[in-house]
Write a structure and sequence with these properties.
Blueprint lengths: L8 H28 L6 H11 L8 H12 L3 H22 L5 H31 L5 H14 L1 H17 L5 H7 L2 H16 L4 H5 L4
Keywords: Membrane, Transmembrane, Transmembrane helix
Pfam families: DUF624
Length: 214
């Protein structure tokens, strides 16, 4: 069979099973990486390393590839993602604690503002993480700047990324909780890489940044 010949049903099944196995492995590696940094300092490098491992062109072994990228971004990932994480936490606190105590129209306005702030901070973190993973030569400030501006330039893609994360979070409270435990991080990251990676590839000069020594 030539490389250009369409896959039969058996070939398509194998492709799907391979993707599921990769997602399971990435999910487990993310958990290990986050725990290795006591979650607060481990979640950011684990997220960027997991996004790199979801690159279809990354044919290195998942274990070695993940930890190589994890070590490379262990320090640089913190200023990229921690500010967005802090923004999400503050906006959630405002949404869940402060807003219920504010009556009337002011409470309704604060509800809308807080909801938008949560979504914007979450989307910004996703965009910044995908940029850092897609452009290994990018400096933290470049990734953070893309996180700040990117969601407003591609709001539909930002909404899709946040929606995938919310769907995974919602599944943890339903009968599908086991699926969320197995794929709840990896699948939203796969969606984010597919949606935001296209935006990153359209940026002029990204190829030169990717070739920059790290």
């Amino acid at each position: 069979m030539s490389e250009t010949e369409p896959l039969g049903w058996a070939g398509r099944v194998m492709v799907v099973l391979g993707l599921l196995a990769r997602l399971l492995a990435v999910q487990a590696l993310w958990v290990l990486g986050a725990c290795a940094g006591l979650l607060v300092l481990g979640a950011a490098p684990a997220t960027i390393a997991a996004l790199r491992c979801l690159d279809p062109e990354d044919d290195a072994g998942l274990w070695r590839s993940f930890w190589r990228h994890y070590r490379r971004v262990l320090v640089s990932a913190q200023p990229v993602l921690l500010p967005f994480g802090a923004g999400v936490a503050c906006a959630l606190f405002n949404l869940l604690v402060v807003v219920p105590e504010v009556p009337g129209a002011a409470g309704a306005v604060l509800l809308v503002v807080s909801t938008v702030a949560v979504a914007a901070a979450a989307a910004g973190g996703i965009f910044a993480a995908v940029y850092a993973a897609s452009v290994p030569g990018a400096r933290p400030g470049e990734s953070a700047r893309f996180g700040l501006l990117g969601p407003w330039l591609a709001p539909g893609r930002a909404a899709a990324c946040v929606g995938a994360g919310l769907a995974a979070l919602a599944m943890t409270t339903t009968a599908a909780a086991p699926i969320a435990i197995l794929f709840g991080i990896a699948v939203p990251l796969l969606v984010a890489r597919a949606m935001v990676g296209v935006v990153v590839d359209r940026i002029p000069g990204v190829g030169a940044l990717a070739a920059r020594p790290t």
